[in-house]
Amino acid sequence: MPHLNNYQFMGHVGRSPTIKEAAGKQVAEFSVAVSCGTVAKPDTIWVKCSVWGDRAARVMEKISKGDAVYVSGRLSLRSYQGKDGTPKAEASVMVNEWQSLKGKDAAAPAVDDAMAAFAAPPADDFVVPF
């Protein structure tokens, strides 16, 4: 049976990328805040992202803290106990594709515009095809 592990999201960079070497390759790591929840009870998920190889240097050049980004990649989840003994969870993504959503590098609309498209109610003439 085929499997698919692809997590796509948009959010704002919470920590500027840092670069290090692992297994003889460069790795850029940064975090992204993804808004979720409701208007009455907003919530934020922090996702740790890693970009490997030649693309790591490009990430360092193009994004920084506060920038809006689109990210797609392989999701992994990890649970652990915090220093205070409470259970914690961490989401991390090995990035396959990313896009800055700012300035002249942006090929997509701003994050707020893209999010509004999902939240917009359907038009009155909207017809369900089945």
Pick out its properties.
130 residues; mainly beta; OB fold (Dihydrolipoamide Acetyltransferase, E2P); 5-stranded mixed beta barrel; 2 helices
Description:
It is a single chain. The chain has 130 residues and is mainly beta. The protein has one domain (7-119): Beta Barrel (OB fold (Dihydrolipoamide Acetyltransferase, E2P)). The chain is built from two helices and five strands; from the N terminus they run βββαββα. The chain has helices at residues 55-62, 111-119; strands at 7-22, 25-37, 42-52, 68-81, 87-100. A five-stranded mixed beta barrel has the order 1-2-3-5-4. Strand 4 (68-81) and strand 5 (87-100) form a beta hairpin. The longest helix has 9 residues, at 111-119. The protein starts with 6 loop residues before the first strand and ends in an 11-residue tail after the last helix. The model has no long low-confidence stretch (mean pLDDT 82).
Counted beta strands: 5
Count the domains: 1
Task: Report the CATH superfamily.
Answer: Nucleic acid-binding proteins
**Architecture per CATH nomenclature, i.e. the level-2 architecture:** Beta Barrel
Q: Pick out the low-confidence regions.
A: none
The largest sheet has its strands arranged as 1-2-3-5-4
Number of helices: 2
CATH topology: OB fold (Dihydrolipoamide Acetyltransferase, E2P)
Q: What's the helix-strand series?
A: EEEHEEH
What is the share of helical residues? 10-25%
Instruction: Output the CATH class name.
Output: Mainly Beta
Q: How would you describe the shape?
A: globular
